[in-house]
Amino acid sequence: MADYYSSRIVITGIGLTSPNGNSLEEFRKNLLNKVSGVENCELRYIGEVHAGVCDYDALRYQNKRDVRNGTRAGSIAIYCANEALKDAGLEVSDDNRNRFGIYVGLTEHGNVETENEVYNISKFDYDVKYWTHYHNPRSVANNPAGEITVNTGITGPHYAIGAACAAGNAGIIQGLQQLRLGEVDYAIAGGVSESIRTFGIFASFKSQGALAYNEDPTKASRPFDIDRNGIVVAEGGALYILERLEDAEKRGANIIAEIVGYAMNSDATHFVLPNAERQAECLQLALDKSGIKPEDVDILNTHGTGTKMGDIQECEAINSVFKNCSDSDAPYVNNTKGFIGHAMGAAGALELAGNIPSFEDNIIHSCMNVDKVDPECEVRKLVVGKNVEKDDINIICNNSFGMLGINSVLIVKKFVD
Questions:
Q1: Do 222 and 335 have their domain in common?
Q2: pTM greater than the 0.70 cutoff
Q3: Is residue 255 part of a domain?
Q4: Buried b (16+ CB within 10 A) or exposed e, 303-314
Q5: CB 102 within 8 A of CB 158
Q6: Cβ neighbour number for residue 373 with a 10 Å cutoff
Q7: pLDDT tens digits for 128-140?
């Protein structure tokens, strides 16, 4: 087997659905034009909540029976995977179906199905004969990745990467690693989330005092703003086609960007509260592994969720890593959750996708709903108000952190042959 360990890994396709767009083009347009995807919706037991809700065409790649028997996360994954394949100009065939690997990051899976089934049988005096036969395949952790294989006929490896809200980045990292091991020739990698379908997540955030509220739902998600008051939960997905550079060039693929660095680590300190020191270590490790200096980063996309301490800790980590940069060399800093809410397992992958077009248009999208920056969240060159135009954008750094102290950073570069 060839030694692929040092292969350059490139992105050749992106498929996504988000609360404010069902393609990269639409998503990017709405980020630049400050179009929110947050709305009010009714949730069992809780009532009206703010949420980032996707409105994609599930029947584009599935029939009604498969949508009914499968899961929302699986449906999102199928939509994103097929859109990514189309974007990459790839078709699954007998010649290549066993050379695809599917690596889908998840925050959680199975809660929606279990909650719904318990609720359904409560209407029948909890008689389990009314429990669906599809519950087990719906609720296993590998479900969204597995549903992609059933839909596309891919016979290579598939599995889920459970990494809380760092899962979108983690899925991409896993795909990259498997390509370098030579296990697959094409990786479908990223993250998906169905989180708005479970009342348990909303109830937990509400009991913690971490669920955002605003009279105007489009203004509820406001990371780094002095008046932020919590998280807006969102659904969505973003899956990428990753290939080794030599393979992509051989087939004449359109190369969107190159992944040049990554890192993951753990806080090892708390169930929920983040650790700025460990986040800074993760960010520095990704830079060191990529050989990129802090002053070379053009855009730093933040994880910032809108929680009080979470935003402060991340800003402390950023300031620590980039403290020696001059004002002119410090990266521009932005955030995506103000537009769509927190898409949990899909967050990192979606947020990276929203920034990748900067390589072509040289525009850095601003944060949304930052009317007054919290003094404890002060970072240089935080993009608020208007978008920023820059002469040349070459390097994007993407932060994504999760509960139980899991941290991930991806570094993506404009492709240069």
A1: no
A2: yes
A3: no
A4: bbbbbeebbbbb
A5: yes
A6: 16
A7: 999 999 999 999 9
Q: Which domain covers residue 112, as residue numbers?
A: 9-250
Beta bridge partners of 335: none
Task: Return all residues near 399 (Cβ < 8 A) that are at least 6 apart.
Answer: 279, 283, 300, 301, 302, 303, 314, 348, 408, 409
Q: Output the DSSP codes for 203-246.
A: HHHHHTT-B---SSGGGS--TTBTT---BPEE-EEEEEEEEEHH
Same domain assignment for residues 29 and 99 = yes
Instruction: Quote the pLDDT of residue 3.
Output: 86
The residue assigned the tokens 């394949």 is: 85
Average of pLDDT values for 208-218?
A: 96
Chain centroid to CA 313: how far?
Answer: 20
* Number of domains making up the chain: 2
Average pLDDT of span 109-114: 91
Tell me, yes or no, whether 246 and 147 share the same domain.
yes
Closest CA to 397 of 343, 342, 322: 322
Mean pLDDT of 191-205: 95
204 and 315 housed in the same domain: no
